[in-house]
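Inverse folding, one chain.
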């Protein structure tokens, strides 16, 4: 979500002489010769607030880079990352790739991305000005990805549903369970909370459950070693299992759940601040009743999910793509990430003056962002996509196949240890 200035086009000296010789026609030919159409596929072109921001950057880029254009390609989220990875590995990538934290780590490790240092310099942004979320995008002093947006997890709350049900904002697990029970209204299909409740792609399963695992003080990995059998990890999975078995969460996927929250049907959601942007555009009543707080779990740890943009090796229009990323880094664009998307930007210190006064709920996310850890597996970030595919099915066995939590985590620990040993051996 960052800001920088991308300057395109050809600058000429001897302006008066050039004008006398018919510069308009010459400039037109020059611009056409260097025009680039930057292919940028992402599901985010189909999401209202994300699209509004991306189109703002697109407009600024095209205005200041004569002849160059951005080609928005709206694609479904399902299967996006597998397809993108296959195209990059095959040498036929789009010009801009969209990567979550673990994907970024994997792409950097495999050398699949172009360095962006030139475009940060163009934007007047140094690596030390980038948010802490960029750790996974930096290798040997070079920056390979810029955060489009960072979404630390906090408990987003529809205050009206809590108030109408006589439920208070929870400060511990027992109070949270009590609030869920009070808000649950089968006649109105209202729920107090959302967590994983249907079979999803492995990455979505991982993303939905990991903030709760971290919130309980658990983890999947510590310093590169599997920790699936950590008592806190087990406690988190038992909590997720309990609220699923007790019917306290809707049986929908995470994308559908976001819409239900916006529609006023879900009272709370451990999610990033971007969801407030959706509510602001679609449901004024929900937006005006938004609150946020630290998730009421004993570990008091928060997770962050960062969406990065990068330029893959083999991109046909790499330079124009870099100038688009530089445009993204402009100060006014960085502030727009906060104002439009309601997420944290790439460049530190970019929150607009007065924004927190008008949007006090955002303070919980800023606080979470100060101490949040990436949801990527610690010490094994570059193998994130492969690790999803091990952890995801284990979680689904617990929820949907009624597998005992201790047995499932013991089996999972063994699989993860085997995975790590194989990677170290290669």
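Residues assigned per position:
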């Amino acid at each position: 979500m960052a800001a920088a200035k991308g300057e395109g086009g050809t600058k000429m000296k001897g302006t008066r002489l050039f004008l006398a010789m018919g510069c308009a026609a010459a400039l037109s030919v020059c611009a056409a010769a260097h025009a680039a159409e930057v292919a940028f596929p992402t599901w985010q072109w189909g999401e209202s607030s994300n699209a509004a921001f991306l189109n703002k950057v697109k407009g600024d880029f095209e205005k200041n880079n004569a002849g160059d254009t951005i080609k928005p390609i709206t694609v479904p989220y399902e299967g996006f990352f597998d397809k993108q990875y296959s195209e990059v590995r095959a040498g036929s990538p789009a010009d801009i790739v969209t990567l979550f934290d673990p994907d970024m780590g994997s792409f950097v490790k495999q050398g699949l991305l172009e360095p962006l240092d030139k475009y940060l310099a163009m934007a007047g942004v140094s690596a030390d000005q980038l948010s802490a979320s960029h750790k996974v995008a930096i290798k040997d002093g070079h920056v390979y990805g810029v955060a489009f947006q960072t979404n630390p997890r906090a408990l987003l709350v529809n205050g009206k549903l809590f108030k109408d049900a006589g439920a208070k904002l929870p400060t511990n697990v027992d109070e949270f369970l009590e609030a869920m029970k009070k808000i649950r209204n089968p006649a109105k299909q209202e729920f107090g909370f959302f967590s994983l409740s249907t079979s999803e792609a492995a990455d979505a399963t991982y993303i939905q459950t990991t903030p709760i695992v971290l919130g309980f003080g658990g983890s999947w990995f510590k310093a590169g070693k599997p920790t699936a059998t950590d008592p806190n990890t087990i406690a988190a999975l038992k909590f997720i299992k309990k609220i699923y078995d007790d019917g306290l969460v809707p049986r929908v996927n995470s994308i559908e759940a976001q819409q239900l929250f916006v529609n006023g049907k879900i009272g709370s959601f451990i999610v990033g601040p971007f969801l407030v942007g959706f509510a602001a555009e679609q449901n004024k009543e929900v937006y005006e009743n938004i609150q946020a707080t630290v998730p009421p779990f004993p570990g008091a740890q928060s997770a962050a999910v960062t969406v990065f943009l990068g330029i893959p090796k083999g991109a046909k229009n790499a330079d124009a793509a870099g100038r688009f990323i530089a445009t993204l880094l402009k100060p006014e664009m960085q502030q727009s990430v906060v104002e439009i998307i309601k997420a944290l930007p790439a460049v530190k210190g970019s929150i607009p003056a007065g924004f927190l006064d008008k949007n006090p709920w955002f303070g919980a996310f800023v606080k979470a962002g100060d101490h949040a850890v990436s949801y990527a597996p610690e010490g094994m970030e570059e193998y994130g996509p492969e690790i999803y595919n091990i952890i995801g099915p284990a979680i689904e066995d617990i929820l949907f196949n009624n597998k005992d939590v201790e047995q499932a985590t013991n089996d999972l620990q063994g699989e993860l240890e085997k995975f790590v040993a194989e990677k170290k051996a290669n």
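The domain at 154-304+371-425 is CATH 3.40.190.10 (D-Maltodextrin-Binding Protein; domain 2). Confidence is low (pLDDT under 50) at residues 1-33.
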